Amino acid sequence: HANYCPKFSRSVYMMRDGRDVMVSYYFHGLRHVAEGPNPKLTRRQRRMYPGLRDKNDFAVNFVPFLQRQLTEPNASHGLNWRQHVMSALGQQNESTVILRFEDLLTHPQQALVDAMEQLTGQPAEKDQIAYTVRRYSFVNQSKRKPGTESRSAFLRKGVAGDWKNVFTREAAELFH
Fold it and tell me: Which residues lie below 8 Å from residue 146, measured CB to CB, with a gap of 6+?
């Protein structure tokens, strides 16, 4: 979540489809909102979810949330998703590895091998990477299969492309 910092001699920038970022962040913040009509919200929650009256009313709540995150984001030190990604890509050099979240889901071992080799200039320890992938997999951390949703959990769903299930035409146009 930190912004790119040129002071780092070597770094990895994790990039994820911004539409999935918005859906993930939306549900992440709602984990701490009480159920029922007109929940008591903190100042931060009121800022994140303008006009929220029922946390389960996604159709009403998501577009105002998205609008706020695109114009007045409260994460990534005030940069919206596009600004955050462009700041990192604009500063990209040989000591910065771009790692796509989606690649970690589809080919985790190869994505980490490639990132480590690019970052260090040395052959990756493939056994250690395989162990790390197993240990920190969604299944091992959540005790659920990817795609099995738990809105109260820190690890909600463990998939890429979930935005396709929840974005309305209005949300898609707004994000675009």
Answer: 105, 138, 139, 157, 158, 159
Retrieve residue 62's tokens: 């998501």
Nearest to 106 by CA among 143, 160, 163: 160
Could you give the CA distance from residue 136 to residue 148 in angstroms, rounded to a whole number?
17
Q: How far apart are the first and last CA of the chain?
A: 22
For residue 13, the cross-strand partners are: 98
Angle between helices 126-135 and 108-120 (to 10 degrees): 130
Stretch among 39-48, 57-66, 69-78, 115-124 having the lowest mean pLDDT: 69-78
pLDDT tens readout for residues 97-112 = 999 999 999 999 999 9
Euclidean distance between CA atoms 143 and 80, whole angstroms: 32
What is 44-105 written as a DSSP string?
Answer: HHHHHSTT-S-TT-HHHHHHHHHHHHHHS-SSGGG--HHHHHHHHHHT--TTEEEEEHHHHH
The pTM for the full model equals 0.91
Mean pLDDT, rounded, for 11-24: 94
